[in-house]
Amino acid sequence: MRMVSEVVSIVFGGLVPGFLFGLLAFRVKSRWCPRCGESTDVIQPSPERK
Fold it and tell me: Where residue 27 falls among pLDDT bands split at 50, 70, 90?
């Protein structure tokens, strides 16, 4: 029984950081257009281009 609890703690110990990393990676990925790769943030035009 002790071995089962150790295995469960090891599995969840690996899943929790992986889940959190996945959430952070999705946020970073969502800043880019999936089709063209351009930034989805609004870019202000430079003063020379007005």
Answer: low
